[in-house]
Amino acid sequence: MPPLxxxxxxxxxxLPTRLLTPTPLPLHRLQSTYQPPDPPLSQQQQQPSHDNSNxxxxxxxxxxxxxxxxxxxxxxxxxxxxxxxxxxxLKLESMEVKREKEGEMRALRGELEGLTAGTxxxxxxxxxxx
Length: 130
Known about the structure:
Elements: H1 3-14, H2 17-20, H3 27-30, H4 43-46, H5 50-57, H6 59-119
Protein name: Inner membrane assembly complex subunit 17
Region (Disordered): 17-64, 109-130
Organism: Friedmanniomyces simplex
């Protein structure tokens, strides 16, 4: 007797019993997942028209067909964000210019009042006060 066959009973006594007894597979695993192939296409269906072949085989067209809408949305959101920030910047800049002009006007009024107050009636300098 070959040594492997003599060692088999000793090995089987060392193995757990769950490995020695076969367990049945669940029923859902025994069901076949085979699907028959599609029936062969007729001669008319095998030769696609030129219009369909250009659309299906064009990788650029397929890319934009798949990602065109998300890219357009992203682009529009980016443009809207840029416009919003640009208009906000213009508004803040105009407010800053307005404050500078108002400060300059106040300084000029103060200087004018100082000049008119120093002359008294204002007739000596050729300025008629109002």
